[in-house]
Predict the 3D structure of the following.
Amino acid sequence: MRVWSTEHVFSYPWETVIKAAMRKYPNPMNPSVVGVDVLDRSLDPRGRLHSLRLLSTEWGLPGIVRAILGTTQTRTYVKEHSIVDPDEKKMELCSTNITLTNLVSVDERLVYRPHPDNPEV
């Protein structure tokens, strides 16, 4: 079930956007992501870069929220798989939570491509 969808056009070349997407965590603008571990990274026969990363997040939930949720856990983990295809100029990034799945399931899919009307920006 899709709950939310959006589209954004970045005013930068595709290569710049992809580099930024791969380096987005950790960063001071989102301090909840406290760690990024690369679990696997490889090239397939078509020259596409596959990356599997584990994102560690710390949300610092207030005690009352933890009590309502029935958990003391504030550190959560997200599995992120990305495929970068330099020939097609396409990056697909899929993320899903692997902790607290009994409470909430979050599946995110991002696709980065050059704009069809202006592929240079």
Strands lie at 33-43, 49-58, 75-85, 90-97, 107-112. The helical segments are 14-22, 63-69. The chain is about 15% helix and 40% strand. The CA atoms of residues 42 and 50 lie 5 Å apart.
